[in-house]
What does this fold into?
Amino acid sequence: MFKIRLLVSALALTGSMSVVAAEALPTKAPAPADNPTTAEKVALGQMLYHDPRLSSSGTVSCASCHNTMLGGDDNRGGSVGVGGQIGGRSAPTVWNSAFNKVQFWDGRAASLEEQAAGPVTNPIEMGMKSWDDVVARLKKIEGYQKAFEKAFGKDSISKDTATKAIAAYERTLITPNSAYDKYVKGDKSAMTEQQVRGMNKAVELGCTSCHSGPAFNGPGTFQKFPVIDNGYFEAQYDFKKDKGLAEVTGKEEDENFWKVPTLRNVALTAPYFHNGKVKTLDKAVKLMAKLQLGKDLSDAEIADIVAFLDALTGEFPEQKMPRLPAYSGNTFN
Amino acid sequence: MFKIRLLVSALALTGSMSVVAAEALPTKAPAPADNPTTAEKVALGQMLYHDPRLSSSGTVSCASCHNTMLGGDDNRGGSVGVGGQIGGRSAPTVWNSAFNKVQFWDGRAASLEEQAAGPVTNPIEMGMKSWDDVVARLKKIEGYQKAFEKAFGKDSISKDTATKAIAAYERTLITPNSAYDKYVKGDKSAMTEQQVRGMNKAVELGCTSCHSGPAFNGPGTFQKFPVIDNGYFEAQYDFKKDKGLAEVTGKEEDENFWKVPTLRNVALTAPYFHNGKVKTLDKAVKLMAKLQLGKDLSDAEIADIVAFLDALTGEFPEQKMPRLPAYSGNTFN
It folds into this structure.
């Protein structure tokens, strides 16, 4: 296809050997062998995902910080957990997270299933003491007994099944048919001239060495950020304070390495970077060019790239609101 | 119809002159002359209702406390507002609130429009400093400019239009086709024998003197609670501490008067009473009989009435999740 040629040839200019796949976003996400996606799991997962009773206070659901009515996040620097506590990293979008190779900013979860288990018992997020407590709470709710039975069989409420259901639901959160997707499928009118210019500039600069593939989050898994030390910007944004991958591995060589985040719907997910310190997309583009590639972009180049990134905003599938099952004895104050 | 005769004749036994209308819940709510319901207003209202950006912290939406995925409330004694503050009254259900004669527990709002304006600027609920601030925030969001334009015309974002849209949405939140509704429409198999027994007992006791009409919240608007002083229960539940209507009017004769709440979906909206101090429906029934009617019910009678109240759980219409429009410069931390 023309676009593939164009991207590859433009890439060739940068000397990178990365393969840039000008691929449209798949409309289905692959599921692991031990958790095939079923309608019953998805329905249950959507309920659990939106149920604030999975938090100690009964006020915070997965959707509170990864809001599917918005761009899949909460548009905050730090998310607000139980008791108004504020987390240290900006919530990544749940949309298209099925295409991430690892989950969390520091990649500490290998799968959506593993990720789903984390925030529920994180003391500053959903604050449950243990998954045993979550399971005990769910078991008291007749509607959940039935929904788990449909999805996993009788008496199946557990951490394992709950996180599998949430992951199965998350695998349906895909936003296809962006202007870019239409463009790479052959509709040359789908992107504006400015967006095409921005795409070519992004490739020429080398952005797509790290942000490639259908979700613009590969081919690698982790990358260092910032690559280039810059005292001026560091003083403003504290990017290096959080050590990222090294906080998980304890290895010095992993310091300031992060999961490469998807660029899909990036126009909707301000603020930017792991600490959410950068409020606008034009500023984020400018900083990425400077700190990762050592390039100073003109305002026109930045505007072109932002226009291209706008072309990565997809179509959000219509979702039904789940009905959350009643618990006749209330759980909270 | 048989049921009407039955209810009226049973009522005659109690000597009450109230008209008990054994009416099914209407499937449409009447709208005020200055706010006819339109699809565009409902769509906008649903967005505003679910948007946490209508709160100072960006974490609390109307739906946080009046959760339409649940029974239209939050199943708490006191709701949790911005900064984890806890309100003094239990959130009433939004489902079928269109059929309330007045809004809020103390009836201080005459309409859904007036009600919608309140929590947004209440410092312990959604905490916005003023509606001017809300309007300024909404005006920055292009998607809202468009949605207001569709609903109300160009440059129409205001407190008046926002609250009208929310009210228009709320008028669609109706739960018809409960077992009771089917029963009064002629399907005698829709309620169990126990439910019919409970219904007749409720009428005989006089419950329906205050809880009658299709939403079981009339014929009057306000009633005193508790009617009968009882030191034992008062010590446990503090019912009289909050003066209700008198807190609005300042009149001694209004002390402990409350809007008669709907009994529709009451099985889903634990805990009970204005302060949410009673956690289960059987206890609430027992206390109502004792404190309002001076009657001591047997466990069997209570179980029958609870079974009848279960028959008032309606069908929740399928709702689409709204898409909340993005704001590219984030508003919060």
In short: Residues 130 and 149 of chain B are 22 Å apart (CA to CA). Chain B has a mean pLDDT of 93. The interface with chain A takes residues 50-52, 57-59, 64, 67-71, 74-78, 80, 83-84, 86, 267-268, 270-271, 276, 279-281, 316, 318-324, 326-333 of chain B (CB under 8 Å). The longest strand of chain B covers residues 222-224.
